[in-house]
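--- STAGE predict ---
source: upstream dedup step, 1 unique chain passed
mode: sequence only
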Amino acid sequence: MSRAVITLLGMISNSKPDYISVDGEVKKVFVDIKEEDRAKYYFSDELSLFKDRQNKERYINTLPLLIDIFDDRDIIAIATKKAKEIQEKTLKFLKLNTDILDNTVIIDESDYNRIFQQISDLLNREKYDNFIIDLTHGFRHLPILMIVNLIITSIKDLNKVEHIFFAKEIVNAKEYEIIDLLDYIGLAKLAFVLQNFNTNYTVGNKVIFRNEKYQDLVDNLRIISGHILANSLKTLIEGEDSLLKTTIQNLKDLKEEDKNIATFSSYIDEIIIHLDELQKLESKKDYIKLFELSKIMKDREYLLNSITLLNESVGMYCAEKIREVSPEISFKIDDFLRYDNKLSQYELASQSKELFKWGDKFRSPYLSLNKDEEKIIIKKINRDKKFINLLFDIGNLRNNLAHGNSSEQIDNVKGTISTMLKDYQKIANIKDEVETIKKIESIPKIKKVKKKKNIPTGIDVSKEKLSSLENMFKNR
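--- STAGE serialize ---
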């Protein structure tokens, strides 16, 4: 397995000239930096495995340190021509082999696009299985371009980057602690996943994290995504330990326990609110569940999902109206859903819808109803003309989208679905509970004004009057 260390080379104190004046005496730059004057570098506890590799603790910069501890890896520098020249002088002064810089990737710091591509090409070299990155001496835009590339690389291959070194200044120019920034790449990926889920319910199949809690959360979101995009809400929300309830609790725990999450906690809050709204649908009737989910999918522009769910919702609404004809028929529907095959709900919605459309009979043997029972249902259901037309329109649009959308533009489809949802909501008298709650919460709260108690402060009377009053009441 071939491994490498990539380091960004700097200019060492703003690119000092070959000779400088110190108290009037001209000295060579590096000769002036004695061993005891060099900065102290040490690894943080999370990087303790590298502590034993250090042969000393003081270095001019991190390049000699990397050479010191990584004799088993290739060291690849990224630098401008000037930075490389300065580093070569540094290595010569330290009597270290300058051949280490033969692999240097030379950059033009004004060409951002080119730098980004050079870093990408380096990280994608098939020769190397993984990298350690040292960002310590990167300047201005260079670390940013590197970090973006590392995020992309980490999404594609979790193990490609082992560590991201950065020498955190403890005492200016005297003491540095080398920390690992790799966890921040994980945070960036997690933020991306959360925002992506919030926007369109998608979670990449190959997004992998070292942090187990992050991984468990993302795995749950991926499963939720799959169910929602498959129009399969029932599995998510039913039961005391439903996946939605478990995921909501995991999100709350993560937000509470992981302080690093604070920077994008708003993403987590949005998901918690949304998943909680979905979970509350558990107690609603099937046609309302399907209606609400249809609205959600329309807003996220999953138009085929939206019209499919709406088509099922109107079918279940028709079934609900058939239930109301008599308790006996309602019991038969319950039995059908309980004991029939997995497609029983689809069959119930489809057959009920067809009865409303044509008003004569069920299109196939159904619910073990006799002809007299069918006639009773047909006579008692309210076949409103506007609703019947809506049933046909929804079914036609669903079939059109499912078979290649041969005649509609996307904008037209979204507008049409929005209109259908509004019309259906009025006909079925479905309350917009989410909007109602928002409106209630937006009403300014009336502040209670505390009434001042009227406490007597006494009577202002003369001594003569007081004496008269005492004589009047003393015998009572």
